[in-house]
Write a structure and sequence with these properties.
Helix content is 35%, strand content 18%. With 196 residues, the chain is an alpha/beta fold.
């Protein structure tokens, strides 16, 4: 339908769309270039992220939680050809500082509306928007590509792009019905994006 990348969701504490690592591996193997394959991982250690990638073999890793010790360099040493995207859950002005600091260590930042501080972490797929004024500040101040996620759907993606000015958009809940991808919602979403 026109996606530049496909997010393949590994095991998560919550949220829609997780699939077994074996399925991620099989899908990633057959997605043709130039479409990127993103492994969404909630692993928090460099060793855990590296091991998760070893089971899936995507070309990009999207780290959806905080990386303990910020050991991005260890991941880069082990996987030099793999791109790293760090998710920042946008809450307030501190999220702007966090995103800009992390942008120096990864290839891109993805802004989402989760809450990793809850007893059961919410690491994406919430269907909720965050305050886009913070996202706009991140886009304006970080030196890396910034993806926008969080509550996007066909009816608000134009406003999101015009307000925030992201490098790209990421959608999950906004193209699902009863937890499954919905072809009609996907078509509507891509039509809205392509009309801009």
């Amino acid at each position: 339908m026109g996606a530049s990348a496909i997010g393949l969701v590994g095991k998560m504490p919550s949220g829609p769309g997780p699939i077994p690592d074996e399925d991620i591996f099989r899908i990633a193997r057959f997605v043709p270039p130039p479409i990127a394959t993103f492994l969404l991982t909630c692993e928090q250690t460099s060793a855990g992220v590296i091991a998760h990638h070893g089971r899936t073999r995507t070309d990009t890793i999207q780290i959806v939680d905080e990386l303990v010790g910020r050991e991005y360099n260890r991941i880069r040493e082990a996987l030099p050809a793999v791109k790293l995207v760090q998710v920042v859950h946008v809450v307030d002005g501190a999220s702007v500082e966090e995103a800009c600091e992390l942008s120096g260590q990864v290839d891109a930042i993805l802004l989402d509306s989760g809450d990793p501080k809850l007893s059961v972490k919410v690491l994406g797929g919430t269907g909720r928007r965050h305050d886009w004024k913070f996202s706009r500040r991140i886009v304006e101040t970080c030196r890396k590509p910034v993806f926008l996620a969080g509550g996007l759907n066909a009816s608000n993606v134009r406003e999101a792009i015009e307000t925030v000015g992201p490098f790209g958009v990421d959608v999950c809940s906004g193209v699902r019905t009863d937890g499954r991808l919905d072809a009609a919602k996907l078509e509507q979403f891509f039509a809205a994006v392509n009309s801009i």
